């Protein structure tokens, strides 16, 4: 086997299976832990390396016809096609989604997303390149869109079906004749791939601070060959670097290694359970600023809240339903995602299951009990704080398990009233007393209104020309 063929085989086998590992991490509840984040970082880097790997395989292409374009020309075609798709995504897809956002038709998001994937795949097919590469680039473009959370939440009901369809297609790619004809070769190569990758990943995991138990778990979790191997083997066959029979053989190796991973992980779990010192292998909490917060509504109110969080490097996910607001924020370099932040599925997609705080900064007083109660029940670990439009909405939301409901103009109005008193010559001590008394009376009045449901309740608590606060100090100089 030539060095080009060896490279065309080794590169795919070095990749791990994102489609298999992520569901395993999600089902075990470790995806958002430091361990899961390390595994995800490796998988993400491998996925992003697919484009240069396909370009490398195309550059090594052996062209049977001397008049046909060489391998480097195929590589340049691949790069040009990818750059073209990225430019189309930036200047065509994003404006298209903004238009759909203005129309407020959720179904069109799914249709537009599928159209992008199919169009990108068709373009790659027309250029005699990998169809899977087109779909992958389309996915990357959609992931960079401000509308990604809306797309993810809309596709979420179909995720399990599509994932099952993917693994079914992987099984259909398996040539049982190859395994039946050379079973020891296939099993031996699959075992070799797992052992070699485990032997390389284990010391690297230890080098980056993983305990022995977690290091072997991470190494075995990433030891299988990945689904992109089928894409690269097909590309290598088209480039005449390996034969179709060799592609079938190594495809069988990929499938067997993927099938072995769940059993290997179960074996590791059982062995660690039997160890008397298994508990110290578990990672304790690490100090980090990742008290994740989700800010829903990035208008005047939400911008102030978000900037205060960012001042202390708190990772914040920003969501807004107004395309104009998203475009305006983008002009200032702020990433705001499109979506209805009151939808539980969209909040879950945005990371609400692990968020420490969910801050609703809507304007217009659109939130109600029926909207907020399911959110507080779905994400009990998160502190839910709400911007309230006026007293009526404050009364309507009374009784919810929400630690903070802030009327949007209350504090600014109190500040202006305080400064107005000072400018009129009222003594500082009296200004402080007026503010304290007003806050106390307003709270008591609000409580009475909530209990009775009548806005006129507690009117005797409010100040007027007939009901003023007696002077204790009076004006300065009086």
From TrEMBL:
Q: How does it sit in the membrane?
A: Multi-pass membrane protein
Keywords on record? Antiport, Ion transport, Membrane, Potassium, Potassium transport, Transmembrane, Transmembrane helix, Transport
Query: Which parts of the sequence are annotated with region: Disordered?
Result: 439-478
Which SUPFAM superfamilies does this chain map to?
NAD(P)-binding Rossmann-fold domains
Keyword Transmembrane assigned to the entry: answer is yes
Question: Can you name a GO cellular component term?
Answer: endomembrane system
Q: Name one GO biological process term.
A: proton transmembrane transport
| Locations listed in the record | Endomembrane system
Lineage top rank: taxon: Bacteria
Task: Report the GO molecular function annotations.
Answer: antiporter activity; potassium ion transmembrane transporter activity
RCK N-terminal domain: residues covered: 290-404
- Listed InterPro entries: Cation/H_exchanger_TM, K_uptake_TrkA, Na+/solute_symporter_sf, NAD(P)-bd_dom_sf, RCK_N
Query: Where would you find the membrane-spanning parts of this chain?
Result: 43-60, 72-93, 108-140, 161-180, 186-204, 216-235, 247-265
Segments of skewed composition (Basic and acidic residues): 468-478
What PANTHER family is this protein classified in? GLUTATHIONE-REGULATED POTASSIUM-EFFLUX SYSTEM PROTEIN (PTHR46157:SF8), K(+) EFFLUX ANTIPORTER 3, CHLOROPLASTIC (PTHR46157)
Name of this chain's protein: Inner membrane protein, KefB/KefC family
Organism, as annotated: uncultured Sphingomonas sp
